[in-house]
Amino acid sequence: MDTSGTVKAGEEGDTIPLATNPGKLSRPRFESFHLVLGIGGMVSKLSELEKLRADENNLSIPFLVYVYVPFLREDPSFYFTGGWEMAVSGGRTSFKALFLYQNRYKILMGLGFGRSWFSYESDDLIIDVSQSYPLLAIGRNLDPQRVDLLLTVPIASSLQTTFEGTSYHIRPAGIQLSLLVSLRE
Amino acid sequence: MKNSVNQQLKFLLLIAVLLSGCYSSSQTTRFDELEKAKEKEYPIRALTVDSTLYTFDSFSFTYSTISGEGRKKWDNSIEEFKGTLNFSDIVFVERLKSNNWKAFWIIPMSLAVMGGVVQLSEPSELYIHRPGGSCPFVSSYNGSEFVMEAEAFSTAISKSLETQTHHLLPSLNPVKNELKVRIGNQRPETHLINDVDLYAVDAGDFSSLVLDINNIRSGGFVSYNRL
User: Strand B125-129 to strand B77-86: parallel, antiparallel, or no bridges (unpaired)?
Assistant: First the structure.
């Protein structure tokens, strides 16, 4: 060991003797924005389109690409997360912007806004739906600063239109359960 | 106006992102990681138990302390710092380095999020319609069934767009001295047809009838009679 106290790489005592964390300050204090990827399951209201032989069911599986921007990086934390979602089945896209608070028990809660699009096109039918709505969100941090489970609930009523004498009530937005994985280093 | 605002917002966001730089942080818990950061001259950030954040632009360290120059931030105050901290007073240490991956995605992702935020203000819409430019279809009876021969005209949504077209009915065959032609509206649309004329064309046995480039019959070498 260097008697002067200067440490050389590879010497004994590899772990830095840091203090314990009495204030429960967490690492997100240091972090800046990063990408978040996820997958979800959304229940919307499109089944009335079966009357038009547009074979659409209410369940979709969207893939999520979000960005994470922290405002308060301590524990508890407060941050913005939002981005785009695209369903596997195609024709369904959403954008969500959420402000989330995570308490010391790793419970997530927050508010936000969203907009969902649904489009369908066949030889004899074209359907275009888009809807903006406020959102409620609640969830749980499963792995510290890495994996979140998030439930988003849109506050939105169905859109209504009459086409060829038949009334249709459609809501492209729906309750969604998402598993989010942060790509932070 | 809205497009102009969107462009300005995107431009401001782009400038903000470029000015902020694209750094990522890695938690540092081992001396060899600290030594590597020192060799590569990465800045170090340390958070002490009293929630003061130190950023060292240059530093050295021993087993128990870290010394250097940089900035000190607590609450909303920032000031220059030069001194020594005990590791026993530090909760976290992280090293900063430029991140090419972040530089790659941050600008397009920021623009995508900004575009989405702008979209949130758009009104909700529900629009169901049939594709335009269809019908009426003209079919002729060939003796056993109707065969579709032509689509009479496409979209003509106003009086000024009225048009006249001609079509050949090569499948049309008389049955008991009757010719049957059907004009069908296949889709739930409304069409206004002023008149329909059926012409018989005298042509040689080995000649073929065609319509000219203006979609009218070539009358220079055949004769025809209105039925």
Answer: unpaired
> Which chain B residue's Cα is nearest to A98?
B117
Helical (H) or strand (E) element with B8:
helix B2-20
Q: Does B64 touch chain A (CB under 8 A)?
A: yes
Residue range B106-122, pLDDT digits in tens: 888 888 999 999 889 88
Sign of CA dihedral B17, B18, B19, B22: positive
- A46 within domain boundaries: yes
**ipTM for this prediction:** 0.74
Chain A residue with Cα closest to B119: A115
Q: Do A18 and B91 touch (CB under 8 A)?
A: yes
pTM, rounded to two decimals: 0.59
Architecture of B13-109 per CATH? Answer: Roll (2.30)
Asked if residue B12 has pLDDT above 90, the reply is no
Instruction: Give domain status of residue A19, yes or no.
Output: no
Give the Cα separation of B113 and A162 in Å (integer): 34
CB contact under 8 A, B122 and A82: no
Residue A116 CA neighbour count, 13 Å, CB half:
29
pLDDT one-digit tens code per residue, A18-64: 888 766 555 544 556 788 999 999 998 888 887 777 667 788 899 99
Of the residues B48, B84, B113, B134, the best mutation for testing chain A's interface (the one with the most A CB atoms within 10 Å of its CB) is B113
Separation CA A61–CA A42 (nearest Å)? 6
**Of all residues in chain A, what percent carry a pLDDT higher than 70?**
82
Bridge partner list, A70: A79
Residue A61, in any domain of the structure: yes
